[in-house]
Amino acid sequence: DAGVIQSPRHEVTEMGQEVTLRCKPISGHDYLFWYRQTMMRGLELLIYFNNNVPIDDSGMPEDRFSAKMPNASFSTLKIQPSEPRDSAVYFCASSKAVSVGQFFGPGTRLTVL
Amino acid sequence: SQQGEEDPQALSIQEGENATMNCSYKTSINNLQWYRQNSGRGLVHLILIRSNEREKHSGRLRVTLDTSKKSSSLLITASRAADTASYFCATDGDKIIFGKGTRLHILP
């Protein structure tokens, strides 16, 4: 298996633009997680899905952020409109259960100018 | 505030020495996990210890859990240059929460 795949790996955009981050989890994993990592706040869980259904989105910072999982092999995290404070590395991870080790993707480094 | 808090924030040791990192948390947990992150990469799962376990081993890794003190430690024995990375603890109680990590640097 190729592992968790994220795209793009790097994204530079201007404030106010829409940003879409993509994730393909490992086949057979029922859980998918989106995290944001910054120096100041560390690694924060934004939202996670079980069988394509959002279970906990309490970490989503505000309404500008939205996440979808239309099928078991694809998820998106969208920021609209983007702001400079959204600059961070965004990770997607997947696992077979919520209380087992997660497999992380390589991350998307987002820079909002 | 963060559930998991690692200490020290940074640690430099000579190759071959043992490295110990600690994690403290605030509320009840189901499991505690340790992850490693190499610079510019995603996190890699190292080991999981359940709340009813006190110690677990995996290769050169030894993890302890003291639920009465709400703390865990990760010991890496006979450190190698390749162990240079950041190490995070993650707890899952009501929520999954990662600490801010310990940056470990192995000196040649």
What key phrases describe this protein's structure?
heterodimer, A: seven-stranded mixed beta sheet, globular, B: 108 residues, mainly beta, five-stranded antiparallel beta sheet
Describe this structure in words.
The complex is a heterodimer of chains A (113) and B (108). Chain A is 0% helix and 55% strand. Chain A is an all-beta fold and 113 residues long. Chain A is globular and about 35 Å long. The mean pLDDT of chain A is 95. Chain B is globular. In chain B, the strands form two sheets. In chain B, strands 2, 4, 5, 9, 10 and 11 form a six-stranded mixed β-sheet that branches. Chain B has a five-stranded antiparallel β-sheet with strand order 1-3-8-7-6, with no helix packed on it. Classes of the chains: A mainly beta (113), B mainly beta (108). At the A-B interface, strand 5 and strand 10 of A face strand 4, strand 5 and strand 10 of B.
